[in-house]
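Quick start: what a row looks like.
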Amino acid sequence: MSNSQKDLDLEFKKAELKRKQLENRKFEAEVKSLELDVELKAQVQEFEVEKAKAEALKQQAIAKRESSRSNWLMVWVVFFTGVVTWLDNVIALIKKIFGL
């Protein structure tokens, strides 16, 4: 084998080694990409869960506020009914006292 043949053989082996290294890098990049994709999907899913929890808390707060409003409305209705009944009784007592 001549020196030029050996040089060509050596250059071919170097090129082959470089190609395999590039293939390995490509494979490592694909694996990293898949890992990042899985991590991103997990983070998106976690975000969606947190978003759903926040929406549930918001709806719960709205329900409590509405419940509180309806409770206060009932208190005011009972209060005014009591006042009207009391005034009605006072008027009836005044009529009774003055014989009207």
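That is the whole record. The mean pLDDT is 92. The CA atoms of residues 4 and 10 lie 10 Å apart.
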